[in-house]
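4.2 Preliminary Data

To establish feasibility before requesting continued support, the project team ran the inverse folding procedure on a target of 495 residues. The structure was first converted into the token representation described in Section 3, and no sequence information of any kind was made available to the design step. The complete token record follows.
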């Protein structure tokens, strides 16, 4: 990110924070972060939102719409269901368009609200901060107690606390692994794996244990490193945000001239009587009392007073901490707030309707409109008819020829449907199904084998184009072309 973009506090011009990573010690080891237990208005909102999202995530595999799962991303069988709508392999263009629309939405969202998604909606943060971290606070206490526990030699108390925590972490990871797998293979398949002995579903059992171990490793050890080094979305931040993007921002214009309470009192400045700063000169104090509570609550270990940093996941814990401090010293809240750099500089309300946002909004609206149109107008039935591979033609005594075909009918509606297949071209041909042609259940498919008979006179060579018509209630709803294999033209009798 270039120097003219807001990455430092422009008043202190402090840049030494760039020389180290908070989570790595000078000798290259992991610097374990012990964030203080957050509390406050925004934390309460996040808690409510996260319970709602967790409820949705864990209940999701069991919710069905017209017999289909709410969401199924079965990559192995190439079956995708979004909100009960089945996307077959033939609908890949729609799926691709849906993904593209989501990517543009993420770009738009990030350009406006920065990394808010990371702190408030991302499953990694929600699991970490709202489940695993809470278990840790519950068993080991707040950050000072956790640090002491880790530093003291192993005794009975430490053993009990640590083993209880890790057993709970592993159990929770197992539950999360099962839930994610249910979104991939479906809840019935998962039930079959979980309820049968592991030897009967060895692959499924191994997959669950691998997922569980990965989740356990992430939430017990890797933690904030996912957001700092592994998450690709985090890496995009520096190109997506600009000085108009909303982000958790320290109001340096108001806060700088920071000084600790002790220092202020020594200088005869009552804490509750700190002069309101019009500018951030050195002669008077700013509102920041340098208590570092905003740093202590930060789960990624940064000091937001240095400016927007890649590590900030916009969790707003520092906003809660600072608001509490401001209330206690009789100053207005929002010294750290959700605003843009330009709004802080200009002392105005943040406005994100910049030409760039309008352009993103235009592209997003176009894609969304196109996706909605294609989704609503996609045919009710999709039929694929292919000649049986490896088989040639049959010659019958009455100068007729036959080919085997395989037909797949996909019913994309939610209702059971009867369809009829007719041969449109060439004239004089006939279709015979091997087995009955049954109704197709809603959002489902059936596969049938059939034979097509053509008189010798209808053949145009060893490859004759044929055209099928798919009818519903007597109305033609789709046509499908294929080829009919016959003998060399010299061997065909025309009568
Ligand atoms: S919590 Fe507020 S007052 Fe305390 S150091 Fe951070 S910005 Fe300054
Ligand atoms: S700086 Fe504030 S918002 Fe950003 S990660 Fe730290 S506590 Fe969360």
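Position-by-position output of the design step:
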């Amino acid at each position: 990110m270039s120097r003219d973009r807001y990455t430092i506090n422009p008043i202190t011009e402090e840049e030494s924070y760039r020389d180290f990573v908070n989570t790595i010690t000078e000798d290259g080891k992991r610097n374990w972060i012990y964030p203080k237990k957050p509390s406050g208005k925004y934390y309460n909102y996040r808690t409510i939102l996260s319970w709602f999202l967790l409820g949705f995530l864990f209940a999701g595999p069991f919710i069905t719409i017209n017999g289909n799962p709410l969401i199924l991303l079965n990559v192995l069988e190439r079956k995708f269901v979004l909100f009960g709508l089945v996307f077959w392999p033939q609908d890949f263009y729609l799926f691709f368009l849906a993904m593209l629309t989501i990517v543009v939405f993420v770009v738009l969202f990030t350009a406006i609200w920065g990394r808010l998604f990371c702190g408030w909606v991302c499953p990694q943060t929600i699991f970490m901060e709202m489940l695993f971290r809470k278990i840790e606070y519950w068993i080991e206490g707040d950050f000072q107690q956790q640090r002491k526990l880790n530093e003291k030699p192993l005794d009975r108390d430490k053993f009990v606390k640590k083993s209880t925590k890790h057993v709970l972490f592993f159990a929770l990871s197992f539950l999360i692994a099962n839930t994610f797998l249910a979104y991939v293979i479906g809840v019935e398949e998962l039930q079959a794996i979980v309820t049968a002995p592991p030897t009967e579903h060895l692959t499924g059992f191994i997959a669950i244990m691998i997922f569980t171990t990965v989740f356990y490793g992430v939430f017990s050890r890797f933690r904030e490193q996912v957001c700092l080094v592994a998450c690709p979305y985090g890496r995009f931040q520096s190109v997506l945000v600009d000085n108009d993007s909303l982000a958790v921002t320290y109001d340096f214009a108001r806060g700088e001239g920071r000084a600790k309470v002790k220092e202020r009192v020594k200088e005869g400045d009552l804490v509750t009587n700190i002069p309101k700063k019009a500018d951030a000169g050195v002669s008077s104090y700013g509102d920041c009392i340098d208590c570092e509570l905003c740093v202590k609550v930060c789960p990624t270990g940064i000091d937001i007073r240095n400016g927007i940093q890649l590590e900030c996941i916009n969790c707003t814990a520092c906003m809660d901490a600072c608001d509490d401090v401001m209330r206690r010293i009789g100053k207005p809240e929002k010294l750290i707030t959700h605003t843009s750099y330009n709004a802080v500089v200009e002392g105005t309300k943040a406005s994100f309707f910049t030409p760039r946002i309008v352009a993103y909004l235009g592209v997003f609206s176009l894609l969304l409109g196109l996706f909605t149109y294609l989704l609503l107008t996609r045919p009710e039935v999709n039929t694929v008819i292919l000649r049986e591979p490896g088989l040639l033609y049959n010659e019958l005594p009455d100068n007729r020829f036959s080919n085997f075909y395989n037909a797949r009918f996909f019913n994309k509606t939610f209702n059971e449907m009867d369809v009829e297949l007719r041969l449109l071209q060439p004239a004089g041909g006939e279709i015979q199904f091997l087995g009955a042609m049954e109704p197709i259940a809603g959002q489902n498919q059936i596969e049938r084998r059939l034979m097509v008979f053509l008189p010798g006179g209808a053949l145009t060579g060893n490859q004759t184009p044929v055209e099928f018509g798919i009818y519903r209630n007597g109305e033609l709803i789709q046509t499908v072309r294929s080829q009919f294999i016959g003998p060399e033209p010299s061997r065909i009798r025309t009568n």
